Amino acid sequence: MPPVADARVTPVYLILNPASGGAALLLRRLNRAARERGIRVRVLAPGEDARHAAIEAADDGAKALAVAGGDGSVAAVAGVAVECGLPLAVVPTGTLNHFARDLGLDLARPLRALDAFAPDHHERRVDVGRINGRLFINNVSLGVYAEMLGDPGYRGDKLRVAQTKLRAVFSDPTLRRALRITPPDGAPLESVVAVVVSNNPYEFSRWDKFGHRHRLDTGALQISVLDAGTLDELERLLAGTLLGAIELRSAIHHWTSRRLETGVPGEVVRTGIDGEPIALEAPLHFSVDPGALRVLLPVDSPASRQVPALEAGWHAARTMRRWLRPPPGS
């Protein structure tokens, strides 16, 4: 086990969210491994806010923070780390772990993340995004995905809610026109299904890297807009993405910027902030804080993780189209 500095001199606090998808055995091992390294562990009670726990740790003299959980927990603790100027280590025990993946952490061996507190660790400065002042580490979604997250039944039956919301969008043009956004040097988009504003650019051109961020320190937001008026357009989009054929993906627009403002003043907008449903009042102001978050990483963190290429992309796209079609007689 790598040594760490005496916790009485440089106290480290681990905020552990047991509700973030980790198995009980893994959480017990993580708790034990942290204590063996002199790290003070704070296990969140059901419904307890990770941000409040991190603030209490900082007030208690923490010199570094760690968080074990999913992206929502990581974002909450990262906000405190930025405010207090503390370094942060991320232990990926959530369901998706987008931020940890893009940091290059080994998702298959989450306990290795605690080696970030070994003497030979290294530190990186990464960007954070903000929406109306609220910090996000991955992205903010508007449109159909935000509507899914805000549905009370989404947690229990994701596929049913996703199918219902997508069918509604493609059967009612007014739902697609509710989101209006204009790309730089372009005309307003009239059939917007979804908008994603991400902290640094995502990869779109290759399936094996789709949805990854190669860097977290470009100092830019990426605005990605899905503008599809029909299911035929969505099918071409899916097929182009799955097959890596860029020319088939004309329904998606993306560009980078330091700032973005959107929404009708006074309107309440459903958003998904790092996967958490939040209602905010428009206008929505997006910005990026370059290098605002100090992240501690083990020295041997892999630079990237390969994702196997998906075969039969056309079949997957057509299956999605059939799934979205209203049932006969509806």
Order of helices and strands: EHEHEHEHEEEHHHEEHEEEEEH
The description of the largest β-sheet is:
6 strands, antiparallel
Count up the helices. 9
- Give the CATH class of the largest domain: Mainly Beta
Radius of gyration: 21 Å
Gross morphology: elongated
Overall mean pLDDT: 81
Q: Distance N terminus to C terminus?
A: 61 Å
Low-confidence sequence ranges = 1-9, 303-317
Task: Kindly summarize this structure in a few lines.
The chain is built from nine helices and 14 strands. The chain has 330 residues and is an alpha+beta fold.
Q: Describe it for me?
A:
The protein is elongated and about 60 Å long. The protein folds into two domains: 12-120, Rossmann fold, CATH 3.40.50.10330; 139-290 and 309-324, Sandwich (Tumour Suppressor Smad4). The protein is 28% helix and 27% strand. It has nine helices and 14 strands. The strands form three sheets. A six-stranded antiparallel β-sheet has the order 10-9-8-7-12-13. With 330 residues, it is of the alpha+beta class. A hairpin with a 2-residue loop joins strand 5 and strand 6.
